[in-house]
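#help-structures
NK: newbie question, is this the right format to request a structure? protein is Thioredoxin
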Amino acid sequence: MATVDITQDTLGQTIAENDIVLLDWWAEWCGPCKQFAPTYEAASEKHEDIVFGKVDTEDQQMLAASAQISSIPTLMAFREGILVFSQPGALPSSALDQVIDAVKGLDMDEVRAEVAKHSQDATDA
């Protein structure tokens, strides 16, 4: 699967309707973003079971602000609608493969239990 452009209008539905979604937050003027783009594109061709989205932070400034993007490129991974990875910086293909393998290997029952625990802790505080 090739990469897909993600906007304010499509983000929620994309995350809700797909098991794994990776998001590359980028901008045209960003050198590291341009360096990372071919690596990200190649991974999208290799992992057809994952949605590889790209968010242009210049075009989607409000979306980038609401996601608290402060450095680009930033890579985010969602699994079953839960943000499970977020890290700024361009990754080499081997590191991107490690992230993808880790996201695929997550025990989502454990992740949901951890999210519930943190939500409860925040409520108790």
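mod (FA): yep, format's fine, and the tokens are attached above. The chain has five helices and five strands.
NK: thank you!
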